[in-house]
Structures are given as structure tokens and as C-alpha cells.
From TrEMBL:
Protein name as annotated: ABC transporter ATP-binding protein
Entries under SMART domains matching the protein: AAA
Keywords: ATP-binding, Nucleotide-binding, Transport
InterPro entries: AAA+_ATPase (IPR003593), ABC_transporter-like_ATP-bd (IPR003439), ABC_transporter-like_CS (IPR017871), P-loop_NTPase (IPR027417)
Organism: Streptomyces toyocaensis
SUPFAM superfamilies for the chain: P-loop containing nucleoside triphosphate hydrolases
């Protein structure tokens, strides 16, 4: 399924933080949202997973306004890993992942064999099977992150919306998470701070700056030294990754763009 964000404006207490945003997450592709702190990435994603109502504009799922769908129906299509990760669930890891099955259940219906299989599979995919009986609140930040990702997988959605999913993860688990996303072949909209991760995993990128999309395209088209200087304020060279051929950004940690002689 495709997600189209059309003329989106987001405001908090009347203050507009995102304006006139149009973007597309194509079916089966990984679409990245990148941009500096405060540029509006989470705000856009919150409207897609219906945590926020747009002040103007629409989010369309295969042409249907997501806001018009009943909550359980929307949750069968779109699953989110928000940045607000919670931590106080007094539930076991397995119970947290099983919450992903809620949109498929009638009120008070128990788990069936299919649910149990899906939950076990989701835990396995994020490498958390042996933590199933542990209390969620007693996990580390990275472990929680993986469990919440398993919950979104258990939801078996058409569209995954992930806000900074690599936060808290060590480098091996970052690489594994990105590989897992690639292997899903689901429509995925993901915000990432790690631009090299974005370059390697995303089919297309949208760059947000001060609440507006300022560039869209493939990582190679978008991640230019000029854009990195203009939008992120850093000096960098973009080279070819020697192992994968992806664009690889080599930051100059000795200079910001403003200090760079032109
Ligand atoms: N709940 C809120 N209430 C009021 N203002 C908010 C709220 N959430 C975000 N903002 C403001 O909206 C703007 C965009 O924030 P947002 O979190 O969408 O940016 P972001 O690109 O995801 O940032 P970051 O990279 O730091 O996570 C910022 O100016 C922020 O201060």
C-alpha cells in the first residue's frame, strides 16, 4: 500500500511547525525522512500514525483518508514505532508483543494458535525470544526498542512507520534492524538521524528543513555536499562505500560548513 501526505500542516497550540508538506511512501519501498533537530520529522510521522490530527492536509492510504478509518481498521494497516517509547508497562515482554494482535481481536477474545505463532516469530526476528518472560520495564533502552519493534511486526501491517528506530541500539543491532526492515518488503516510512544508515537502507529520501520538504529523491540524488552544508550545516565529502557501493558520507569533524572557505 502507498502512503501519500498531501499538503500537510501540523501545529501545536496554534504554532505551525510543519507546513505544505507533500510526500510519498511507495508500496514496498523504504522511504526515509531526514532533517536537523526540530525540522518536523516526528510531527509528520505522528500524523501518519494518527497520534496527531493534521491542522490542514491529509494522509492518504492507497487514496483513502486515514483519518476516516476506524481505529482498529487503521491499526491493521499502519503500525508505528513512535519516539515516545514508554517504559512503565508492568507487562512481560511477550505480553507487550502480543498487544500487536489487538486490532485483530474481538473484545475479550483470547489468543489463538495463530496469534501465538506470530508473537513467537516476531520475538525471534528481533532476537528477543529468551526475554519473553521478563518484565518490559526491567529492560535496557535497546532491548525495549527491539521488543516494541516486535510488537509492530506482530501487528502485521501493510505500512510501518518508525521514528528513529535505531536509537539506543548498538551497532550490530542497528545493522540487524536495518536488514530486517529491508527484508520486510513492506511500505516503510522511517525517520533517521544516521545519514549513512539512511543512505544504505532507504530507496528514497525526503529532507525536512524548518517544517518544509526541501529535497526528495534517491540517497545519491539527495545527499550532496551542498545539501549537507545548507541543511545540516556540516562539511562532508560523499564517496562510494567500498563494500556496498552506497553513498557514504565522510564528515569533516574539524569544521562546520560555516567555517569552510568557499
Ligand atoms: N508536543 C509538542 N508541543 C509543542 N511543540 C512541539 C511538540 N512536539 C514538537 N514540537 C515542536 O515542533 C517542532 C518540530 O518538532 P519535531 O519533534 O517534529 O522535530 P524532529 O525533526 O522530529 O526533531 P528531532 O530530530 O529533534 O527529533 C519543534 O520546534 C518542536 O519544538
Amino acid at each position: 500500500m502507498r502512503i501519500e501526505v498531501d499538503g500537510l500542516r501540523v501545529a501545536y497550540d496554534g504554532r505551525t511547525v510543519v507546513a505544505g508538506v507533500n510526500l510519498l511512501a511507495a508500496p514496498g519501498e523504504i522511504t526515509g525522512l531526514i532533517g536537523p533537530n526540530g525540522s518536523g520529522k516526528s510531527s509528520v510521522l505522528r500524523t501518519v500514525y494518527r497520534h496527531l490530527r493534521p491542522a490542514a492536509g491529509r494522509v492518504l492510504l492507497d487514496g483513502t483518508d486515514l483519518a476516516a478509518l476506524a481505529p482498529a481498521r487503521a491499526a491493521r494497516h499502519v503500525a508505528a514505532l513512535p519516539q515516545e517509547r514508554g517504559g512503565d508497562f508492568e507487562l512481560t515482554v511477550r505480553e507487550v508483543v502480543a498487544m500487536g494482535r489487538t486490532p485483530y481481536k474481538r473484545a475479550f477474545a483470547g489468543e489463538d494458535e495463530k496469534d501465538r505463532r506470530i508473537v513467537a516469530d516476531a520475538l525471534e526476528r528481533v532476537g528477543m525470544t529468551r526475554y519473553g518472560g521478563r518484565r518490559f520495564s526491567a529492560l535496557s533502552g535497546g532491548e525495549r526498542q527491539r521488543v516494541l519493534l516486535a510488537r509492530t511486526l506482530a501487528q502485521d501491517p501493510d505500512v510501518l512507520v518508525l521514528d528513529e528506530p535505531t536509537n539506543h541500539l548498538d551497532v550490530r543491532h542497528q545493522v540487524e534492524l536495518l536488514a530486517l526492515l529491508r527484508a520486510q518488503h513492506r511500505t516503510t516510512l522511517v525517520s533517521l538521524h544516521d545519514l549513512n544508515a539512511a543512505a544504505s537502507v532507504c530507496d528514497r529520501l525526503h529532507v525536512l528543513h524548518a517544517g518544509e520538504v526541501v529535497a526528495s529523491g534517491t540517497p545519491l540524488e539527495v545527499l550532496t555536499p551542498h545539501l549537507l552544508a545548507e541543511v545540516f550545516g556540516v562539511r562532508a565529502a560523499v564517496i562510494e562505500h567500498p563494500l556496498t557501493g552506497d553513498p557514504l558520507i565522510a564528515f569533516d569533524h574539524t569544521a562546520t560548513a560555516a567555517e569552510t572557505p568557499s
